[in-house]
Amino acid sequence: MSSYSPERIVRYGKPLVFCLCLAPLALLVYRGASGAIGPNPVEAVTHFTGDWTLRILLITLAVTPLRRITGMGWLLRFRRMLGLFAFFYACLHLLTYLWLDQFFALGAILEDIVQRPYITAGFAAFLLIMVPLAVTSTKGMVRRLGKRWRTLHRAVYAIAVLGVLHFLWLAKADITEPAIYGLALSLLLLSRLPFNQLTNWLPARSA
Q1: Which of 1, 51, 60, 125 makes the best surface tag, with the fewest CB within 10 Å?
Q2: Residues 102 and 146: beta-carbon distance below 8 Å
Q3: Beta carbons of 141 and 148 less than 8 angstroms apart
Q4: What's the distance, Cα to Cα, between the start and end of the chain in Å?
Q5: pLDDT tens digit sequence for 18-57
Q6: What is the rounded CA–CA span in Å between residue 126 and residue 94?
């Protein structure tokens, strides 16, 4: 077996990816402990965890097109871990809002969901899509659902769309960062179209 075999790469790569995905949390803890988190810690934690939810989600979506381009099928074996880390940071993001921002005041939370579109989009993405995807991410659920599992997990695209909208509607004046995420998501979605569909969009050559 080659020293660079897919099995070996995955075996040693998974702990590395795991540590890399925990690095943002370690950085956040360090900033909090050192007092470098800024004048508004709750807002800083909320934005930090939200940013990393979206970043890791986009990295997860990038696995399939990267596999197609490189032919490295073993890349798909990192996708579930990345998706679960996106869910993990989404849980931290939501918990920060519920606990540190709203102190679990149900009335205020429900009012926010109804009156603020970015809160509505965030809750919809988490409760209606991310939670079901996380629950059905185990090997046992993959076997039980069969072909339905693949159909269900295509909803990850909807999570990304709602995540970008959540960020865009939250931004007040400067929409540069959410626009960058939106562009990255658009490219990732286009990359999932069959090549012949993409070429159909190009202008026809003259005879």
Answers
A1: 1
A2: no
A3: no
A4: 53
A5: 999 999 999 999 999 998 888 899 999 999 999 999 999 9
A6: 9
